Amino acid sequence: MRNMKEKKADKKALSLAMKPNTAPILAIAPQLAQKSDANTTSLDNSRYGKLCEKLKATQLHLEAEKAKGERAATTSRLEMESLRKASESTIKELELSNETAYKETREIDEKLIEETADNLATKAALLRSKQKISK
């Protein structure tokens, strides 16, 4: 039954297409079968538009995240650089402190060696004088 209606519609369309005044109208106006395609195309265009909006929003979000990441990376680099400089200055201070402590220790060692030598000399002198007295 549907085929009969379609055949009649096709014949009518052909006869109308032969008339010069109606040809442009038939070319523009969609038939029943074409209307669903037009609706589908409209839905597809709408979905495409929404997808484009989502894509743009995602791109903006990613660019913002990238900028945040770059700022965070720059901040981290600056923090690491300041920590490195602080540790280098601390190391230099410790090296100077160690050198000073080493010099002070050497001086104390030399004084102790001198005092020990004096004490040994005094002890030896006392022993000799004690031996002289006991004789």
UniProtKB/TrEMBL annotation:
Lineage: Eukaryota, Fungi, Dikarya, Ascomycota, Pezizomycotina
Name under which the protein is recorded: Uncharacterized protein
